[in-house]
Amino acid sequence: MKYEIQKNDTVASCKLSGELTFNDHDLYRRMLDEALDGGAKKVVLMMDKLEFIDSAGMGMLLVGQDKSTNENWTFELQAPQGQVKKMLDLAKLAQVITIN
Amino acid sequence: MSELSEQQLSTNQNIDDEVYVLLQRWTALSDAQRRSFNALTQEIDVASDLIEVSTHKLAEQFQALALHSSKQATQLQNLIAESNKVVIGEEEIPLNDTIGKLDHTLNDMVTKFVQISRNGVAMAYELDELITYVDSVKSCVDDIAGITKQTTYLALNAKIEATKAGEAGKGFSIVADEVRELSKSINAISEKINDEISSVAQSVHRGREKLKEITTVDMTDNIMAKEYIDELMKAIVEQNNRFNAAIEESAAASQSVSVDVAKMITTIQFQDRTKQRMDHIKDSLAVLTEMLQKLDNESQSYANKASVKIDAEEMLEEMIESFHLAEVKERFIRAALKGECIDDNSGESDIAHSEASDDVDLF
């Protein structure tokens, strides 16, 4: 996985690309920490360039959601495509995480 | 008597004979007609029996056809009912419900896959934190070991200085020895703690690796299988619906056949009306026969004076020559010429004959 973070006031947008699997769990956590650094109140994962996600990747998204609830900030996913969208739909992740 | 009168008499006698012969022909024709009417009356009975037996047989066959068609419609309806459910053990589940249940089970399965992954990732993060703490503890123990080393050096220096001081430093020498012993003990404990922490760190690392193995088992295919199974079940239901529609159409057609056949059974009850008409014809023929007999009785005494005898048989034979059906011809000969009575059961035998043989005269 690769990412780029753009911050705008209290919103941090993380542009993801490549694949999100268990091997990225450490990088994923560092990305969230980096996004929240500076007092962001909302983290948006831009997923339109993310090509693949596995079950562990979806687990990481849920961990991100748990973290946002515990630390009182907002977590959103945006524009999932292809296989990623299909996996999120099948797992009904929209019932737990806001997906736009 | 004059010659003219004799001629006149002869002429009159010839005229009388011609009238008698003509009357003879009329009475012969009358006889032939009466015998023909008798034969035709019996032929009407045969035809009436034939129609009655055939109609009853036809009605029976139609009733059997209606029954089979009705049974077929019932069986098709049963088939539709059976195809709309599945039996698991003793439980009957409507096919549409099985899809709902299967979908629920698959959703539950997928949710659990994702929950396992979430817990695995969360556990991995916890182990990462634990490793950080273990490293920190190990660093503290290393600090203790460094301090202990410095304490040992200090105790050694104190011992040297105490020795230099002679008797005055004797007490310090004892304290220095005890401090060295204490440092040795602390060092031994530090080494032991270090060993234990290293074991913990190794266990945590091994646990982390195992967790990674578990969490990295990709369940993508299993999750994707839900989509395939969903589509498969939808296809099965749609196919079943198409089968049911076809079977329902077939059942409706069978039911329609039953209704049509019932109407046909009603329609073929013409036999009663036909028999009434034939009886009417027979009655008319009987009246005609009586009238002919009466006229024959009145004319017979004059006809017998004719110089020639004319038989009714000749006229009957001439009539028989025009018949086309061999069976009818044979019965007519028996009834009209030989004066026999045609058997009452001849209708049934005629039917059997017609059904069993190709020997049917065609017009």
Protein described:
The complex is a heterodimer of chains A (100) and B (363). With 100 residues, chain A is an alpha/beta fold. Chain A is built from 3 helices and 5 strands; from the N terminus they run ββαβαβαβ. The radius of gyration of chain A is 12 Å and the shape is globular. Chain B has 8 helices and 2 strands; from the N terminus they run αββααααααα. In chain B, 12% of the residues are buried. In chain B, a hairpin with a 2-residue loop joins β1 and β2 (91-94). Helix content of chain B is 86%, strand content 2%. By secondary structure, chain B is mainly α.
Q: Topology of this protein?
A:
The complex is a heterodimer of chains A (100) and B (363).
Chain A: E1 2-8, E2 11-20, H1 25-36, E3 42-53, H2 55-71, E4 74-78, H3 82-90, E5 98-99
Parallel strand pairs in A: 2-3, 3-4, 4-5
Antiparallel strand pairs in A: 1-2
Chain B: H1 3-83, E1 85-88, E2 91-94, H2 95-164, H3 170-215, H4 220-267, H5 270-303, H6 312-321, H7 326-337, H8 346-356
Antiparallel strand pairs in B: 1-2
Helix pairs in contact in B: 1-4, 1-5, 1-6, 1-7, 1-8, 2-3, 2-4, 6-7
